[in-house]
Amino acid sequence: MNTAEQLHLQQDSELLAARLPPLLLAAQRVAATVAQGVHGRRRVGQGETFWQFRPYEVGDTPQSIDWRRTAKSEGVYVRQMEWEAAQSVWLWRDPAPSMSWRSGKALPLKRERAELLLLALSVLLLRAGERVALLGGERRPSGSKEAVARLAAALLTEPQPGADESPAVGLPPEMPLPRFGQVILIGDFLAPLDQIEARICRFAERGLKGLVLQVLDPAEETLPYEGRVRFFGIAEESDWLVSRVDEVRHAYQERLAAQQAGLLEILQRVGWRTTFHRTDHPAQTALLAAYQALSVEEGLA
Protein backbone atom coordinates (compact mmCIF):
# COMPACT_ATOMS: atom_id res chain seq x y z
CA MET A 1 0.00 0.00 0.00
CA ASN A 2 1.54 3.32 -1.08
CA THR A 3 1.50 6.57 0.89
CA ALA A 4 -1.49 8.03 -0.99
CA GLU A 5 -3.56 4.89 -0.34
CA GLN A 6 -2.62 4.93 3.35
CA LEU A 7 -3.65 8.59 3.63
CA HIS A 8 -6.97 7.90 1.91
CA LEU A 9 -7.64 4.93 4.22
CA GLN A 10 -6.82 7.04 7.28
CA GLN A 11 -9.16 9.81 6.15
CA ASP A 12 -11.99 7.32 5.53
CA SER A 13 -11.42 5.78 8.97
CA GLU A 14 -11.53 9.17 10.67
CA LEU A 15 -14.76 10.08 8.90
CA LEU A 16 -16.32 6.79 9.96
CA ALA A 17 -15.20 7.20 13.56
CA ALA A 18 -16.56 10.75 13.66
CA ARG A 19 -19.97 9.75 12.35
CA LEU A 20 -20.53 6.56 14.35
CA PRO A 21 -21.06 8.00 17.89
CA PRO A 22 -23.58 10.71 16.83
CA LEU A 23 -25.57 8.15 14.83
CA LEU A 24 -25.70 5.72 17.75
CA LEU A 25 -26.58 8.48 20.19
CA ALA A 26 -29.40 9.71 17.95
CA ALA A 27 -30.75 6.17 17.56
CA GLN A 28 -30.70 5.61 21.32
CA ARG A 29 -32.46 8.93 21.91
CA VAL A 30 -35.21 8.25 19.36
CA ALA A 31 -35.72 4.72 20.69
CA ALA A 32 -35.90 5.95 24.31
CA THR A 33 -38.61 8.46 23.39
CA VAL A 34 -40.73 5.82 21.66
CA ALA A 35 -40.12 3.12 24.28
CA GLN A 36 -42.05 5.16 26.86
CA GLY A 37 -45.25 4.82 24.86
CA VAL A 38 -45.21 1.23 23.58
CA HIS A 39 -45.85 -2.17 25.07
CA GLY A 40 -43.38 -5.00 24.95
CA ARG A 41 -43.55 -7.64 22.23
CA ARG A 42 -45.00 -11.03 23.04
CA ARG A 43 -42.26 -13.64 23.45
CA VAL A 44 -43.04 -17.05 22.03
CA GLY A 45 -40.49 -19.02 24.04
CA GLN A 46 -37.23 -18.99 25.98
CA GLY A 47 -35.18 -21.06 23.57
CA GLU A 48 -35.58 -24.53 25.04
CA THR A 49 -39.23 -25.28 24.17
CA PHE A 50 -39.56 -27.68 21.27
CA TRP A 51 -41.35 -26.18 18.26
CA GLN A 52 -41.25 -28.73 15.44
CA PHE A 53 -39.18 -30.99 13.22
CA ARG A 54 -38.81 -29.80 9.65
CA PRO A 55 -36.68 -30.82 6.65
CA TYR A 56 -33.18 -29.38 6.48
CA GLU A 57 -32.94 -26.35 4.18
CA VAL A 58 -30.16 -24.27 2.67
CA GLY A 59 -29.03 -21.79 5.30
CA ASP A 60 -29.56 -24.12 8.29
CA THR A 61 -26.47 -24.86 10.37
CA PRO A 62 -25.21 -28.44 10.87
CA GLN A 63 -25.66 -27.91 14.62
CA SER A 64 -29.42 -27.55 14.14
CA ILE A 65 -29.77 -31.07 12.67
CA ASP A 66 -31.52 -33.60 14.90
CA TRP A 67 -29.51 -36.74 14.13
CA ARG A 68 -31.83 -39.09 16.03
CA ARG A 69 -34.87 -37.95 14.03
CA THR A 70 -32.80 -37.99 10.82
CA ALA A 71 -31.67 -41.58 11.44
CA LYS A 72 -35.31 -42.72 11.58
CA SER A 73 -36.20 -41.20 8.22
CA GLU A 74 -34.97 -40.91 4.67
CA GLY A 75 -34.31 -37.15 4.87
CA VAL A 76 -32.35 -34.78 7.09
CA TYR A 77 -34.41 -33.01 9.77
CA VAL A 78 -33.87 -29.93 11.90
CA ARG A 79 -35.10 -29.67 15.49
CA GLN A 80 -36.50 -26.16 15.76
CA MET A 81 -37.15 -24.33 19.01
CA GLU A 82 -39.76 -21.62 19.51
CA TRP A 83 -37.12 -19.01 20.32
CA GLU A 84 -35.22 -19.79 17.13
CA ALA A 85 -38.39 -19.68 15.08
CA ALA A 86 -39.72 -16.34 16.23
CA GLN A 87 -36.94 -14.09 17.49
CA SER A 88 -34.51 -13.42 14.66
CA VAL A 89 -34.99 -10.13 12.82
CA TRP A 90 -33.02 -9.14 9.71
CA LEU A 91 -32.92 -5.44 8.89
CA TRP A 92 -31.99 -3.72 5.63
CA ARG A 93 -31.77 -0.17 4.41
CA ASP A 94 -31.65 0.63 0.73
CA PRO A 95 -28.10 1.64 -0.34
CA ALA A 96 -29.22 2.82 -3.81
CA PRO A 97 -28.01 6.23 -5.09
CA SER A 98 -31.58 7.56 -4.93
CA MET A 99 -31.39 7.35 -1.13
CA SER A 100 -28.47 9.81 -0.99
CA TRP A 101 -30.70 12.78 -1.80
CA ARG A 102 -32.59 15.55 -0.08
CA SER A 103 -34.52 18.51 -1.41
CA GLY A 104 -33.19 21.00 1.14
CA LYS A 105 -30.26 21.48 3.49
CA ALA A 106 -32.57 21.44 6.51
CA LEU A 107 -33.63 17.88 5.70
CA PRO A 108 -31.68 14.66 6.25
CA LEU A 109 -30.68 12.48 3.34
CA LYS A 110 -33.16 9.66 2.91
CA ARG A 111 -30.29 7.26 3.59
CA GLU A 112 -29.47 9.01 6.87
CA ARG A 113 -33.07 8.79 8.05
CA ALA A 114 -33.26 5.13 7.03
CA GLU A 115 -30.11 4.32 8.98
CA LEU A 116 -31.39 6.16 12.04
CA LEU A 117 -34.70 4.27 11.94
CA LEU A 118 -32.97 0.93 11.40
CA LEU A 119 -30.73 1.40 14.43
CA ALA A 120 -33.51 2.79 16.63
CA LEU A 121 -35.71 -0.19 15.73
CA SER A 122 -32.82 -2.47 16.62
CA VAL A 123 -32.58 -0.86 20.05
CA LEU A 124 -36.27 -1.50 20.73
CA LEU A 125 -36.11 -5.05 19.40
CA LEU A 126 -33.10 -5.90 21.54
CA ARG A 127 -34.87 -4.53 24.62
CA ALA A 128 -37.75 -6.88 23.81
CA GLY A 129 -35.42 -9.88 23.73
CA GLU A 130 -35.09 -10.20 19.96
CA ARG A 131 -31.93 -10.99 18.02
CA VAL A 132 -31.02 -8.68 15.15
CA ALA A 133 -28.74 -8.77 12.13
CA LEU A 134 -28.11 -6.80 8.98
CA LEU A 135 -29.65 -8.46 5.93
CA GLY A 136 -26.77 -9.30 3.62
CA GLY A 137 -24.24 -8.82 6.39
CA GLU A 138 -21.67 -11.31 7.59
CA ARG A 139 -22.86 -11.63 11.18
CA ARG A 140 -25.63 -13.87 12.44
CA PRO A 141 -28.50 -12.43 14.51
CA SER A 142 -27.33 -11.34 17.93
CA GLY A 143 -29.02 -10.19 21.11
CA SER A 144 -25.85 -8.79 22.71
CA LYS A 145 -25.38 -5.24 23.94
CA GLU A 146 -22.85 -4.65 21.16
CA ALA A 147 -25.27 -5.61 18.39
CA VAL A 148 -26.43 -2.05 17.61
CA ALA A 149 -22.88 -0.70 17.43
CA ARG A 150 -21.96 -3.54 15.06
CA LEU A 151 -24.98 -2.79 12.88
CA ALA A 152 -23.99 0.87 12.73
CA ALA A 153 -20.41 0.07 11.81
CA ALA A 154 -21.59 -2.35 9.10
CA LEU A 155 -23.93 0.28 7.65
CA LEU A 156 -21.26 2.96 7.53
CA THR A 157 -18.62 0.70 5.97
CA GLU A 158 -20.97 -0.82 3.39
CA PRO A 159 -19.77 -0.01 -0.15
CA GLN A 160 -22.03 2.50 -1.85
CA PRO A 161 -23.25 1.39 -5.29
CA GLY A 162 -22.31 3.46 -8.28
CA ALA A 163 -24.81 5.38 -10.35
CA ASP A 164 -24.32 2.98 -13.27
CA GLU A 165 -25.19 -0.17 -11.33
CA SER A 166 -28.23 -2.36 -11.94
CA PRO A 167 -31.65 -1.07 -10.80
CA ALA A 168 -31.82 -4.21 -8.63
CA VAL A 169 -29.47 -2.39 -6.27
CA GLY A 170 -32.60 -0.74 -4.87
CA LEU A 171 -33.94 -4.12 -3.77
CA PRO A 172 -32.98 -6.23 -0.74
CA PRO A 173 -30.41 -8.95 -1.45
CA GLU A 174 -31.55 -12.47 -2.19
CA MET A 175 -30.26 -14.84 0.46
CA PRO A 176 -31.53 -17.94 2.28
CA LEU A 177 -32.89 -17.15 5.74
CA PRO A 178 -34.25 -19.52 8.41
CA ARG A 179 -38.00 -19.94 8.35
CA PHE A 180 -40.29 -18.04 10.71
CA GLY A 181 -37.97 -15.09 11.22
CA GLN A 182 -38.81 -11.48 10.41
CA VAL A 183 -37.46 -9.04 7.83
CA ILE A 184 -37.58 -5.24 8.09
CA LEU A 185 -36.89 -3.38 4.85
CA ILE A 186 -36.35 0.40 4.77
CA GLY A 187 -35.99 2.32 1.51
CA ASP A 188 -37.81 4.48 -1.02
CA PHE A 189 -39.15 1.47 -2.97
CA LEU A 190 -39.37 3.30 -6.27
CA ALA A 191 -38.13 0.29 -8.23
CA PRO A 192 -40.53 -1.37 -10.68
CA LEU A 193 -43.35 -3.10 -8.80
CA ASP A 194 -42.78 -6.44 -10.51
CA GLN A 195 -39.19 -6.51 -9.23
CA ILE A 196 -40.31 -5.59 -5.72
CA GLU A 197 -43.01 -8.26 -5.80
CA ALA A 198 -40.61 -10.98 -6.95
CA ARG A 199 -38.16 -10.21 -4.15
CA ILE A 200 -40.81 -9.94 -1.41
CA CYS A 201 -42.49 -13.17 -2.50
CA ARG A 202 -39.23 -15.08 -2.22
CA PHE A 203 -39.01 -14.12 1.45
CA ALA A 204 -42.70 -14.83 2.09
CA GLU A 205 -42.50 -18.26 0.47
CA ARG A 206 -40.01 -19.28 3.16
CA GLY A 207 -42.48 -18.37 5.91
CA LEU A 208 -40.79 -15.07 6.76
CA LYS A 209 -42.93 -12.22 8.05
CA GLY A 210 -41.96 -8.67 7.17
CA LEU A 211 -42.38 -4.96 7.46
CA VAL A 212 -41.61 -2.44 4.71
CA LEU A 213 -40.96 1.17 5.67
CA GLN A 214 -40.98 3.52 2.69
CA VAL A 215 -38.94 6.70 3.22
CA LEU A 216 -39.49 9.65 0.89
CA ASP A 217 -38.38 13.25 0.74
CA PRO A 218 -41.32 15.70 0.88
CA ALA A 219 -40.48 17.03 -2.59
CA GLU A 220 -40.91 13.51 -3.96
CA GLU A 221 -44.52 13.60 -2.84
CA THR A 222 -45.50 17.18 -3.63
CA LEU A 223 -43.21 18.18 -6.53
CA PRO A 224 -43.25 21.78 -5.23
CA TYR A 225 -41.19 23.36 -8.01
CA GLU A 226 -42.44 26.05 -10.36
CA GLY A 227 -41.64 27.07 -13.91
CA ARG A 228 -38.82 25.62 -15.99
CA VAL A 229 -36.81 23.02 -14.07
CA ARG A 230 -34.11 20.53 -15.03
CA PHE A 231 -34.12 17.31 -13.02
CA PHE A 232 -30.79 15.48 -12.92
CA GLY A 233 -30.79 11.67 -12.92
CA ILE A 234 -29.32 10.12 -9.78
CA ALA A 235 -28.96 6.52 -10.90
CA GLU A 236 -29.37 5.34 -14.50
CA GLU A 237 -32.02 7.92 -15.35
CA SER A 238 -31.37 10.59 -17.94
CA ASP A 239 -31.75 14.27 -17.10
CA TRP A 240 -35.26 15.62 -17.60
CA LEU A 241 -35.99 19.21 -18.60
CA VAL A 242 -39.54 20.31 -17.77
CA SER A 243 -40.67 23.62 -19.22
CA ARG A 244 -43.62 23.98 -16.82
CA VAL A 245 -43.62 21.81 -13.72
CA ASP A 246 -47.20 22.71 -12.81
CA GLU A 247 -48.37 20.98 -16.03
CA VAL A 248 -46.92 17.61 -15.00
CA ARG A 249 -47.44 17.80 -11.21
CA HIS A 250 -50.82 16.07 -11.19
CA ALA A 251 -49.68 13.22 -13.45
CA TYR A 252 -46.55 12.77 -11.36
CA GLN A 253 -48.51 12.59 -8.11
CA GLU A 254 -50.91 10.07 -9.64
CA ARG A 255 -48.00 7.87 -10.67
CA LEU A 256 -46.46 8.04 -7.19
CA ALA A 257 -49.83 7.19 -5.63
CA ALA A 258 -50.12 4.20 -7.97
CA GLN A 259 -46.63 3.05 -6.92
CA GLN A 260 -47.56 3.26 -3.24
CA ALA A 261 -50.91 1.54 -3.79
CA GLY A 262 -49.19 -1.23 -5.73
CA LEU A 263 -46.61 -1.69 -2.98
CA LEU A 264 -49.35 -1.88 -0.36
CA GLU A 265 -51.29 -4.44 -2.40
CA ILE A 266 -48.21 -6.65 -2.78
CA LEU A 267 -47.54 -6.61 0.95
CA GLN A 268 -51.15 -7.24 1.92
CA ARG A 269 -51.26 -10.25 -0.39
CA VAL A 270 -48.36 -11.95 1.44
CA GLY A 271 -49.45 -10.81 4.90
CA TRP A 272 -46.69 -8.24 5.41
CA ARG A 273 -47.17 -4.77 6.87
CA THR A 274 -46.06 -1.36 5.66
CA THR A 275 -45.63 2.18 6.92
CA PHE A 276 -44.81 5.39 5.04
CA HIS A 277 -42.53 8.18 6.25
CA ARG A 278 -41.49 11.63 5.00
CA THR A 279 -38.15 13.01 6.07
CA ASP A 280 -39.68 16.35 7.12
CA HIS A 281 -41.65 14.49 9.81
CA PRO A 282 -40.12 13.44 13.16
CA ALA A 283 -38.22 10.15 13.17
CA GLN A 284 -40.08 9.19 16.36
CA THR A 285 -43.37 9.13 14.44
CA ALA A 286 -42.06 6.62 11.91
CA LEU A 287 -40.39 4.52 14.60
CA LEU A 288 -43.56 4.29 16.67
CA ALA A 289 -45.65 3.32 13.63
CA ALA A 290 -43.14 0.66 12.59
CA TYR A 291 -42.82 -0.83 16.07
CA GLN A 292 -46.57 -0.93 16.56
CA ALA A 293 -46.94 -2.64 13.18
CA LEU A 294 -44.51 -5.32 14.35
CA SER A 295 -46.44 -5.71 17.60
CA VAL A 296 -49.75 -6.09 15.74
CA GLU A 297 -48.11 -8.82 13.67
CA GLU A 298 -47.56 -10.74 16.91
CA GLY A 299 -51.08 -10.13 18.17
CA LEU A 300 -50.50 -7.04 20.32
CA ALA A 301 -53.09 -4.68 18.89
Q: What share of the residues does DSSP label as strand, in percent?
A: 15-25%
Largest sheet: 5 strands, parallel
Runs in which pLDDT lies below 50 for 5 or more consecutive residues are 6-17, 42-47, 82-86, 163-168
Please give the radius of gyration in angstroms: 21 Å
Secondary structure tally: strands: 9
What is the CATH topology descriptor of the largest domain?
Rossmann fold
Give the SSE string.
HEHEHEHEHEHEHEEHEH
Kindly name the structural category.
alpha/beta
Distance between the termini: 57 Å
Q: For this structure, what is the CATH class of the largest domain? A: Alpha Beta
For the biggest β-sheet, the strand order reads: 4-3-5-6-9
| pLDDT averaged over residues | 80
Total individual domains = 2
State the helix count.
9
CATH architecture descriptor name of the largest domain: 3-Layer(aba) Sandwich
Shape: globular
Indicate the percent of residues in helices: 40-55%
Give keywords.
301 residues; alpha/beta; Rossmann fold; 2 domains; 5-stranded parallel sheet; two-stranded antiparallel sheet; 42% helix
Structure, explained:
By secondary structure, the protein is of the alpha/beta class. It has two domains: 3-43 and 87-297, 3-Layer(aba) Sandwich (Rossmann fold); 45-86, no CATH class. The chain is built from nine helices and nine strands. The protein has helices at residues 3-35, 67-71, 82-86, 110-127, 147-157, 193-205, 218-222, 249-270, 283-297; strands at 50-55, 77-81, 88-93, 131-134, 182-187, 209-216, 229-231, 240-242, 273-278. The strands form three sheets. A five-stranded parallel sheet has the order 4-3-5-6-9, with helices on both faces. It has a two-stranded antiparallel ribbon with strand order 1-2. A two-stranded antiparallel sheet has the order 7-8. α1 (3-35) packs across α5 and α1 (3-35) crosses α9 (283-297). It is globular, with a radius of gyration of 21 Å. The chain starts with a helix and ends with a helix.
